[in-house]
Amino acid sequence: MIQFANLYFLLLIPLIVFLFLIRKNRSVLKFSSVKLLESAGMRKTVKHKIGKYIILSGLIILVIALARPQLPQKAGPASQKGIDITMALDVSGSMQSVDFEPNRLEVARKTMEDFIKGRNDDRISLVIFAGTAYTRVPLTLDHNILRESLAGVHSKSVNQDGTAIGMAVSVGLSRLKKSDSASRILILVTDGDNNAGDIDPNTASQLAKDLGVRIYTIGVGSDKTIIPVDYFGQTRYQQVEGGLDEELLKNVANTTGGQYYRAKDPQALAQIFSTIDKLEKSKFQQDNFVQYHELAYILIEIGLLLLLAGIFIDKYYFVQIP
């Protein structure tokens, strides 16, 4: 809805109309007779009034411009800042296990992508790890690039096999330590125990606590790890030993004020991310501002054009008949 910053200027409009009507009924020059002009075929018609009414319209529009009409734009919070999130995804060979359809890694990727779609105001980075860890995408609000990069992750994205949980946490913290966000979290998704890397997960979690970063750890997979193996052109399935070190993941989460979750099926994994999404909501200031688009400038242009056109029509285009 249009509003006026200087509403009182609109009171001039009735005055202008009143003066216009008074002046219209008065002639500046008095003629004893206009019969000579009328005999020449000149008559007072509506068209002889067009110029005056255009001038009146221009004056009214200029007065409206003085009142500064404004069109409100979209309202928004006075200041807003989302949460900074690092997502660390295990891409080791065991994530190819087919106990999740089609495998653990694909389900984890899809679930993380759905989580990202709901975090429009948050900066998110992506860390992937196996026997070592590295940053695939730094903190960004460009979630399209983030999702595209996530879609390209596969089990060969890290060329060193193993599960370096301590390294994953450490690299994730390097993305968050310079952040000035009021809330910073790290979500770590893995299906193994720490068997690689030079950094102890407990040491890394203590560093996270010191930095004020909460870690949510998610253990992925059922109680059986079944890996597809290429055997002379045929796919066979092999059950492998080993699995989650749940005590370690619980300790990493608890040390930082986060939480450990176990996802034994795709539905449970989706529910876990939904729970984290609800727990970690971005907080915004409640005081809202509204931006306004000033309409006065365009009205001034229109008003001046009408004035010029009206003066030309009234004084030069039509011969005035008193």
Helix % is 40-55%
CATH superfamily of the largest domain: von Willebrand factor, type A domain
Count of helices? Answer: 10
Strand content: 15-25%
Task: Give the N-to-C terminal Cα separation.
Answer: 44 Å
Strand order of the largest sheet: 5-4-3-6-7-10
Unreliable spans are: none
Multimeric status of the protein: single chain
Structural class: alpha/beta
What is the third-level CATH name, the topology of the largest domain? Rossmann fold
Q: Looking at the structure, what is the overall shape?
A: elongated
Q: Rg to the nearest angstrom?
A: 37 Å
What is the makeup of the main sheet? 6 strands, mixed
Arithmetic mean pLDDT: 86
Tell me the series of helices and strands, N- to C-terminal: EHHHEEHEEHHEHEEEHEHEH
What is the count of β-strands? 11
What does this structure look like?
The mean pLDDT is 86. A hairpin with a 3-residue loop joins strand 4 and strand 5. It contains ten helices and eleven strands. It is 40% helix and 23% strand. The strands form three sheets. The protein has a six-stranded mixed beta sheet with strand order 5-4-3-6-7-10, sandwiched between helices. A three-stranded antiparallel beta sheet has the order 1-2-11. The chain has a two-stranded antiparallel sheet with strand order 8-9. It is an alpha/beta fold and 322 residues long. It folds into two domains: 102 residues, no CATH class; 196 residues, Rossmann fold.
